[in-house]
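Hey, can you fold this one?
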Amino acid sequence: MSTVAGITPGGTASANLKTAHEASVFGEAIDYFNEAAANLDLDPNIKRILTHPSRQVIISIPFQRDNGDLDVYTGYRVQYSFARGPAKGGIRYHPGVTLDEVTALAFWMTWKCAVVDLPFGGGKGGVTCDPRVLSDHELERLTRRYAAEIIEIIGPDKDVPAPDIGTNAQTMAWVMDTVSMHMRSHTPGVVTGKPLCIGGSRGRVEATGRGLTIAIQAALEKMGKTLARQRVAVQGFGNVGSVSAKLLAQQGAIIVGVSDQFGGIYDKRGIDVEAAMAYVTAATNEKRTLEGFSGAERITNEELLELPCDILVPAAIEDQLTVENAGRVKAHIIAEGANGPTTPGADGLFSQAGVTIIPDILANAGGVTVSYFEWAQDRMGYYWRESLVNERLEEVLRENFDAVWSLAQQRSVTLRTAAYMLAIRRVVDSLLTRGIYA
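Sure. Predicted structure:
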């Protein structure tokens, strides 16, 4: 295990890090932070701390394929901040995983946890691989080796991983079991997003999509509107996109378009979301894709972003809304189900055009909120009914949405800037109260 840490401001490592972050995902994340920090008149020394990750770990993961061949993959775990508590963030399996991306995601998790006032810092992990070409046995061996490599830095009081792109509840079960075997004790609180039978929380699977729906409802209420007859387009039909589309439709919205990585479907009269979900999850649909779904027009992901609609939900991956396509987006509200789907340049154009953006760190915080509930339930050994989980999720999100909305109105800033301002204040308060150990 190799660690990139202890970077000295002004030193060579710091200079190299800064150069690497230019025109990067992490660089874009820092741009949003800097805008909010300017509105807070943040102390330069505190700002310097907050723009550097606490720990970056790079590991090599050798594991044996089913055919006997040996592969070596690269894995990462970034713990961005511990100011408010243990690091918290998912594990991503994807061919495009890089240290820069994982650092940006850990950075966003820091502010996401803080904006909804959870007692966590930010973390993220990933392995550069394509899980679709690995068998279940290969995924298990890969996951257990990855978990063993980071076992010294994760735990209920250190860093609590969760599922992300390419991973799921079964992945978390393997991580939990690996850690428990090494520790010689049952350690359910080491991860969240687990199956119910080993300490998972009711409502966790739907939490991000449900939280996104709550955030959209809250924004519409502030505008004197309801979800009824609102035309919605959703990019991404995984857990977040499909659940939010289903819940929005149940509240009276018209889902005019949905898409996955292979493309999308469009019907101005409205798509039967539950039928689309059933089609994607059918045993005969080996690719788990919307391809071949009947009764709707085929479109590309790019076309979905530009559909005539009232609400756009980018719930796929980063950098989907850019300066190139921002002018063609017709939605009046953008609810960021994905992390970092809007580039800073596009964000500025949307602000000028009067488009309301519910930022990712607030819009998709439902998942980490219920992860917090799961972590707390594991620590207590007392598990809640699903109705209580959903009730408390709505309380947390609405209370903090109201705080962000009020701050945006008071300071005449966007919801994104207000969300960062609130989150930064909370992290800085914790940091200053704890002091600097040196």
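Residues 1-22 have pLDDT under 50 and may be disordered. Let me know if you want another pass with a different chain boundary.
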